[in-house]
Amino acid sequence: MDLFIGNTSIQAHQFLYRLPEREKIREILVPSGQQVRLSVETEAMAHAIVEQHREFGLVSVDEVEKHPLFSGLIYSFKDPISEEAMNVGFSRRNDLLSDRGLQIRRAAAVTAAKSIEGAAERDGLRSSNVEVELVEQQKGPADNDPKLNQTIVVGEPGTKARSQRNQ
What we know:
Layout: E1 2-7, E2 13-18, E3 25-30, E4 35-39, H1 43-54, E5 59-60, E6 73-77, H2 83-122, E7 129-135, E8 147-155, E9 159-166
């Protein structure tokens, strides 16, 4: 039986797996944007390989758009993964990473705001809102990549984020 593993992340992935009742760990490199075919003896072996990686975000091509733990690796039994499914995977992975980045920046802004509020209270002042502005600097004259420019407002009852990408 054939098991196809696709990599929709932006870096190569060293895919390690063990066949049932075998001690030897096998490995295969899955380059970014490509897929590999693992030919195994039985369907049960193919399912065992998938189960080894599901908890780390390996998902079926049918689950890419809705799975919360999607890691960038997708699989398909018997049939190669379509170019469309690979593109959906790239897009979904990028969206998840962007969302996670925003969550991390918001948490950092809340921490900074609490520190500022604590310092203000020690000085007998009160702060109601704190704005944290994040601006990514250009690395050099040839750097034309979009840059992060985001302001996160921390105050009651929660945090809001305003962001834009410079072109």
